[in-house]
Amino acid sequence: MTIVSSYNEWDPLEEVIIGTARGAGKLAFEPALAAYYPKADPERGFKGAPYPPEDVERAERQLDTFALALEKEGVTVQRPDPVNHIAPFSTPDFEVANGHAQTCPRDVMLVVGDRIIEVPMAQRGRFFEYRAYRRLVKEYFAGGAQWVAAPRPQLTAETYTEDYTTEDELYDFTTHPALTEFEPLFDAASFTRCGRDIFVQPDVVTNRFGIEWLRRYLGPEFRVRVVEFTDRYPQHIDTTLVPLRPGLALTNPERPFKDDSAKFFADNDWRLVDAVPSVRTGPPTTRDVSNWISMNILMLNPETVVVESAETPLIELFKSLKIDVITVDFDAVFQFGGSFHCCSLDIRRQGELQSYFA
User: Fold this and answer.
1) pLDDT single digits (tens) 210-235
2) Which of 236, 238, 341, 346 does the annotation list as catalytic?
3) Of 18, 75, 348, 352, which has the fewest Cβ atoms less than 10 A away?
4) Is 187 among the catalytic positions?
5) What is the CATH number of domain 13-349?
């Protein structure tokens, strides 16, 4: 058995990393966050801060419950080492008031087959986030996994589009990108894996240089396919395009395809199902997560999914698709950066590399 092996989002899950909220901090404003805040927004002056201890404890209890629910299903669960992010740090190129968290391992590392890839993240405050996972990654390497870190970014002023805003012009990968092509940049959660085909949404933390770096590193065995959606400030694909099993995926009806990708899926006999609105759809209570956070689910196998307890309409949709649902309370975790998919990283799933598209 290969200790690390995962090629898609749905094969039976055997081992996973679940994040922790301990040591988390709220990011200070920095250039990578400019798309989310109008130029006159006072939040552009935010200097960073710790989370209230009671918020951390409530989120940690829900993360623990999530871990226990997976263990009851026979999944091996690993947890990162808590790192205190409430401290300033600097490199020769930038300095920040504090870091963020190790709640979302899906953002920091990309698993493709037996490879663990540490990614070059665009947010300065997340530069050292990989440190929380180093003990685990070294253990996986000792067990036979491949381990590589993409080029560490400099994150200088040249990395970011100067004076960026989406107030009057929507984010656009070609005409109005948030990032320059100064260096390769991407978050792992900007990609979703379907065997040999890996789909990537260009967004405010992922540029062409980063996509091309991953394409060349993975080589001809994989096809890295760009899909674009209409979104004011896209970040990560896992509340926009969510594969459930071969031939079936959820899509976000508020973020239609900008290209011909819908036809590409249809031509390959994939059914795209509109997700139902989240019960929390409306003005967001935090800019850390999407109003479509309900779509950020975790498939345990092609017939079983983990969904947030309050999302009754989505639960009913899954039942109509003949998918069993495990519910877990997770609303306290949202403000730390994500839901079930973001807060997990599948290390091993059953199954081998296959092609699900022509």
Assistant:
1) 999 999 999 999 999 999 999 988 99
2) 236
3) 352
4) yes
5) 3.75.10.10
